[in-house]
Amino acid sequence: MEAKRIGFIGLGAMGAPMARNLLRKGFSVRGCDLSAQARAAFAAAGGEAVPDPEAAARDADFLLIAVATAEQVRAVLDAALSSLPPKAVVVLHATVAPSFARALGAELDRSGHLFLDAPISGGRAKAEAGELVIMASGAETAFTAAKPLLDAMASKIYYLGSEPGIASTVKMINQHLAGVHIAAACEAMALGVRAGADPDVLFEVISESAGSSWMFRNRVPHILARDFTPLSAVEIFVKDLGIVLDAGRALRFPLPLAAAAHQQFLAAAAAGFGREDDSAVVKVYERLAGIEVKGRTPG
Question: Does residue 98 share a domain with residue 133?
Answer without folding.
Answer: yes
